[in-house]
Structures are given as structure tokens and as C-alpha cells.
Design brief:
The structure holds 3 protein chains of 3 kinds. Chain A is mainly α. Chain A has helices spanning 2-8, 13-33, 37-62, 66-96. In chain A, helix 2 (13-33) packs antiparallel against helix 3. The longest helix of chain A has 31 residues, at 66-96. By secondary structure, chain B is mainly alpha-helical. Chain B has 3 domains: 1-139, no CATH class; 165-544, no CATH class; 564-638. Chain B is built from 26 helices and 2 strands. Chain B has a two-stranded antiparallel ribbon with strand order 1-2. In chain B, a hairpin with a 2-residue loop joins strand 1 (65-75) and strand 2 (78-86). In chain B, helix 5 (141-159) runs antiparallel to helix 6 (166-197). Chain B starts with 6 loop residues before the first helix and ends with a helix. Chain C is mainly alpha-helical. Chain C has helices at 2-20, 24-44, 48-73, 85-109, 125-134, 137-158. Classes of the chains: A mainly alpha, B mainly alpha, C mainly alpha. Chains in contact: A-B, A-C, B-C. Chains A and B meet through helix 2 of A and helix 26 of B.
Chain lengths: 109, 639, 165
Amino acid sequence: METVVQQIQGVPLNHYILFCSLIFTIGVVGVLIRRNVIIIMMSVELMLNSVNLLLAAFSAYSGDPSGQVFVFFIMALAAAEVAVGLAIIVMVYRNTRSVDINALNRLRG
Amino acid sequence: MIDLIWVIPLLPLIGFLVNGLGRNVLPKALVGIIGCGVVLAAFLVSCGVFGQVYALRQAGEPAAFTQPIFDWIRAGGLKVAFSFLVDPLSAVMLLIVTGIGFLIHVYSIGYMQHDKGFARFFAYLNLFIFFMLLLVLGSNYIVMFIGWEGVGLCSYLLIGFWFKNSAYAGAAKKAFVMNRIGDLGFLIAVFLIFSTFGTLEFAGIFPQAANMAMGDTTLLLITLLLFVAATGKSAQIPLFTWLPDAMAGPTPVSALIHAATMVTAGIYMIARSNILFTLSPITLQVVAAVGICTALLAAAIAITQNDIKKVLAYSTVSQLGYMFLGLGVGAFTGAFFHVITHAFFKALLFLGAGSVIHAMSDEQDMRSMGGLRKHLPVTYFTMLIGTVAIAGIPPLSGFFSKDEILAHAFAHSKGLWVLGFIGALFTAFYMFRMLFLTFFGSFRGSAEQKGHLHESPVTMTVPLVVLAILAVLGGLLNVPSALGGNHALANFLAPVFADSAAKAGTVHLDHTTEYVLMGVSALAALMMAFVAYRSYVVKGVVPAVDTAPRGWLSRLSYRKFYVDELYDALVVRPLNLLSVFLYRTVDRKALDGIVNGLGGAAGESGKGLRLLQSGNVGFYIFMMVIAVVALLAYGIVNG
Amino acid sequence: MSVFYFVAFLSIFFALMTIFAKSPVHSVLYLVITFFTFTVHYILLNAQFLAIVNFIVYMGAIMVLFLFVLMLLNLNKDTEPLKSNLVKVMGAIAGMCLLITLAGSFRILEIGGPDHMEPTEIGLVGNLGKVLFSEFLLPFEISSILLLTAMVGAVLLAKNDPKNA
């Protein structure tokens, strides 16, 4: 373990920031270009994960454990959110027989 | 008594309020008593004030008092107090306004007896007296201006008294608008005065002005503007056309406002500001020129008029022209003397005309009159006195005052005297023409009019008699030294015109010249009276009907030299076109277009923005991302 | 050091595969692999607890849940709705803009992070547990209530209503 950790010692924090921004952007693009509701939810999970990683990185680099505790809570929350979200998707599918997001436009003005 | 000066304007104001508010409940007798009583009370107090001033003048004091009533405006450097000035000039004007006002109020009781608006009439008359008193008593230009505007307002109210007739209402409007044009000149002059002298009080301005150079350009501007105001109020060229039209009002109104008091406000104002005018010789020349031109023009028109009141109206304009001529040649006392005598005989003539009209069942055309001597003896005799006075035949009052003006004109410039002399010839002619057409010959009216002919009631004839006595004796006020008098009025008013006299020097004509001038004018007046007699009594000439063909001179005179038509084409029509243009184009298209356009734009933008609500969640998320990007970009750009 | 870059490259590659895969099942599988790479990242940061939790909760529970729903709805490549090309391009551009602005803002903020990491023990289970149960006790308890609520909600939502069936 120590050698692995020693290996990581040379990575500047900025690289972590850039990397996580990239993953976040990929998640955003996924939300924008997919019409399947389930895929969109997965892209949201991807975004959450990128934030988790960044928080953990900050926490490790500054020696403050609150960051990792925060990540723990985010994970719990994400689990709850996925459960409820998928339940909603199942309901929608039951009513409209499709998971196309464009079909859900009843709020049209 | 001078402490009670504030009572004098207050009494007519109370009369106005009581009669105005109670016009539907008070009985006519009470209205008449209140209306005349307040003016009589004001007259008595004015007599007391005059007596005090006279005593002081006899003792050689300048006799000028300022009585402050309250502090009115305090704004930065502008301090205007509501205060009254009592000095010889205002004391004399007080007597005239309240005295003749009282006589006319008494006359109106009889004249307006059968009118439904009896109480309203008296209320307006009292209001007019109130404003006129403010005008003559004001100790600064602002209080004078309040009175100035107020008498214009009352003039409008009284000319258009029978407002249901749209022609009369139009005449009232015309008078008011022309007065307003003059008032603009007054206001601008007041602004200039304030910026030049720093104060608006007479007692502050005139001593300062006395130290200024002769021909100072600021003073020139101020006096020209003040003169514009005077032309509006006193019906001189170019703002005189309202006065003949103002005959639409009841005859007592014509007598009070348009003969004796309001139209003399212009002359009073110039007499009060005499030092400013003396230091602007160019303005004085303008004043004299306008005065003599107006006198001649109005006299030329009066020769062919057939309405008895119109003849008197043009006669008033002409006599006012003489007063301005007097002011222009520096005869301030002479002009003011003519104001006094003119008030006497012109009020007398108007009231007499009213009596005639009343007897003729409201007929005003002289071609339907004639031979009224037998039926209206008192009216005839008093109007004869008035006509002789205005023609300038000695020893009546008109002779003395007109002669003083003409003498000063002669000393100033021979040409002016010649023109004034011609005007006097016209005056004598048309006045006697009016007298002869009305009272001599045989009756030319209808039979039922003849049946109605009766002498007027006592309330109407007593003022006529009083005014006739004043017209006869008025000359004694200022008998020139050439005739052995001591020119009492000139001595009385000396402190008011002292600075001007110092600057301009007094005029001295040797007595021989004066006798010649007097004799010439008296003889000429008598001669013109005889010419009129020959024409209208001996030969029995009756003026032609309106449609008869006339020579071009006669037509020019009869059509009032087309001045009204000229104003209509030059001023009224372009203003109407401008108004229509502003309404159609600016108001409806532009302004409404902007307002409606804004509303329409709001609606259209709403319709457009509505399309954003597509119901498409993907689109919403896309917008969110764009927004975040925009926020971050803004943060980056602004550091 | 190169381990980090290699694993990072893998994460990015599989994340892109996730969003570009045509079949939803492939998408799910790629996402699982992406999460595995994230676990490796956590290990590199010596956040051992988080790594294990990530592995168990995300990969084991959440993605399995996604797969269950996919199977339930019987989605495959044929029934996948497609977006128009314009929308795809716009989405890609918006993403690029977001990345650029994010990077730009980080540059402006000058987050001069430390160049290297001190070896740290805070990610170990015991140490994290000490912090969790002392400072963050209340949020910890409340999150359990949250999970209970979510569970109730999900069950209620997905239940077949006997009256409407």
C-alpha cells in the first residue's frame, strides 16, 4: 500500500481538478444528447461521482476528513435518489409505454 | 385713516363672496344694497385717505406710505410682500375707481332689474372693483399684476355675462386672449426688473433707476415690454380689436370696465413707472407714435359705425390713444388728467347709451332711433353734456385735459400736434353725429318700440346727473396757468413725477402760443359740431343700410380697416392648422403610437417568450447548462 | 505517478463509451467499469473506506438496480429513441463550453493546490469512523431516516394500485 501511495505523491491537485471537470462535462453532455430517461439518470450518477472523487482528493491533500465524510453522505443520498427515480420511471413507463423524454411534454406552454 | 387702507379692497371682496354664494337665495333688493353698499363704504374710506394725503401735500410733504399686509413670497433672493402703497397717484385712482364704481353699481340696479343673473352680475362687479383696487394700491409689481390679471378675468366674466350666446362668449374669449398676450410682456418685464434691480417694490426700484443712464438698454427692453402689456390692457394697436367686441357685455360693464377703470390700468402702470420711461426716450417715441396712430385709426372707424355702443367703444380706443400720446410726449400729469376727465364723460356717455337702449327695448342701431329728445329728456341733456365734454369745447372738462396733452405735443413735435388736431376734429364730428342721429329728427323705429319709450328710473338717471356735474366741473382740477389757474392736480401729483421732471425738464410754452392753440382747437370742435348738425339734422341724412354700396374710403372705415380679418388670416388660421396637425399627427400617430406600441411590444414579446416553454425537459436542461456557462464566463471576464 | 494518468485515461474512455453506446445495456456495463476505475482512484488517494463503499454501493447496488429496470422494461438497441443530429451537436458544443469555462474559472481562482500529497491516514476506516461518529453524528442518523423515506417512497410509487389495475 505504501508504495502505491508514494507513487501518487507527485500528482498536483490541479490535475485532479481538471480530470474531475472532464468527467463532469461528459456527464453533462450525456444528459443533453440522450433521449432515454434511464441513460440520463446514469449520466447524472456519473456527474455525482466526479464530484465525489474531487471532494476526496481535496480532503486527502489538505488532511481534513470532513471531505470524505461528505462523500459518504453523498453516496447515501445518491442511492436514495436512484431508488426513487427509477420507481418514477417505472410508473411513467406504465402510463406512457415509452421512456422517451420528448414524450413527457405535458407542461408545454 | 391710512391704517385702514386694507379695508378698502376687503369690502368689495366681502360683497363678492356674499352675493356670489347667496346668489340663488338672497332677494334682489338685498343683493343691490350689499353690492352698492360695500362700494359706497369703500368710497367713503377712500375719501378719508385722500383727505389725509391732500392735507399732507398742502403741507408740502411727498405723502407716500407703504402699508404691509403680510409677507407673501420668500424664495431665495426673491422677497415679495403683499403691501399697499398710498401716494397722490393711487389716492386719486382710489377715488375714481370707488366713486364711479359706486355710481355704476347704483345704475346697474335699474338696468339689470329684469335679468335672471342679477346677483351674479353684482358679485362679478364687486370682484372687479376688488381687483382694480389691488391694481392701483399695490406697492410692488406683483400685487399690481394680481390686480392686472384679476381685472382681465372679471372682464372676461362680465363681457360673456350672457354666456348662452356663443357670439358673446367668443367676444369674451377674444378679450381674455388679447389681454393675455399683453400679460406675457408684463411678466417678462417683471423678470427683467427683478434681475436688474433685485427687488420688485416700487420704493426700491425707482430710486435705483433714477441713477441709471439715459437710454440704458435694459430699461429700454423693460419699458417696451411694459408698453406691450399696456397695449393689451388699454386697447392700443395692435391689441385693440377686443374692445369693440367687448360691447357684447351689458352696458354698465362697458361703462365701468371699458371706459373708466380697466382700460386706464395701462396708463396708470406707465404713470407709476414714469422714471423708467423717462430714461428710455425711444420707448416714449414708440408710445407716442402708437398712441396717435391708434387715436386716428379708431376715430376713422367711428365715423361710419351705426351701433351706438360701437361708436363709444371706438371713441374710447381713440381717447386712450390720446392718453398714450400724452405719456409719450412726457405729459404724465396731462395724460392722467385726461384719464380722470375721460372717466367722467365716457362713463356718462355709456350709461346714457344704456338708458337709450333700455328705452328702445334693447335696440342698439342708431338708424332706428331719432327724436328721442322728447321722450328721454334727462338722458338727452346729460348726453349732450358728455358729448360737448369729449369734443373738447370749453369750459367743460374735456377741453382742459385734451388741450394740455396737445400743448405738450406741440412743444415736442409740431407733426404730432397736427395729427392730434385732426383726431380731435374726427372726435367732435362722430360724437355729435351720434348725438344728432339718436336724439334729433323724427323717430325711425318700429311702432311697438315707440310705445315702449320711457325715461329711465331714478336709479339710472341720478348717476347720469352726478356724472354730468363732474364732467362739467372736472376741468377745474387742473386749470393751466395760462388761464389763470394754479394747476392743482399737477401740484398734487408732483412728487410722483418728480424724478422724471428732473431728468426731462419741464415744458414751457409761452402763454400766447397756448392761447392760440386753445382757440384753434375749440373753434375747430365747434365747427365740426356745426358740420354734423348740418348733415344729420338740417339735411336729415340717415346712414345707409349695411348692404348699400359705398365708396372705398367709407368701406374701409365701415369694415374697421379689415384688422380682424387680418388677424384671423395671420394668427388664428395658422394656429388652428397647427392645432389640427398636432392632434392628427403628433398626438394620434406619434404619442398614441408609442403608448400602444409599448403595449403591443409587451404582448408580442410575451408571445415570443411563451415558445420557450416547450415542455421539452431536454431543452430546459440545455438552457440550464447555457446559463451556468454564461455565469462562469461573466465571472471569468470580470475577474 | 503514471498509474494515476493511466487510470484517469481509462475513466475518461469508458465514460465516453457510456454516453455514446447505442444499446442501453452496453451503457450500463460501461458505467460499471467507469465506477471501477473510480474505485482505483480512491485507493490511490488512500481513501480505503470510500473505495470499498464505492465498490459495494455504486457498482454492486445502484448499477444492479439500473440493470434490473432495463430488464424489466425490456429495452434494447432497437427501441432506443434517437435525438436529431442538430441536438447532438448543440449538446457537444455546450459541453465543450462548460469545460472551457470551468477550466478558465479555476485558472482565475488560482487554486494553487499542493504539488504533492502528504501521506495521510485519514482515509482509513477507523479514523474516518471516529470523525463520522463524533462530529457528524447527527447527519449520520438523519441519513438513515432519509434512506427509510426513500425506501417507503419507492415502494409506494412502484406499487401496482389494485383499484386501477
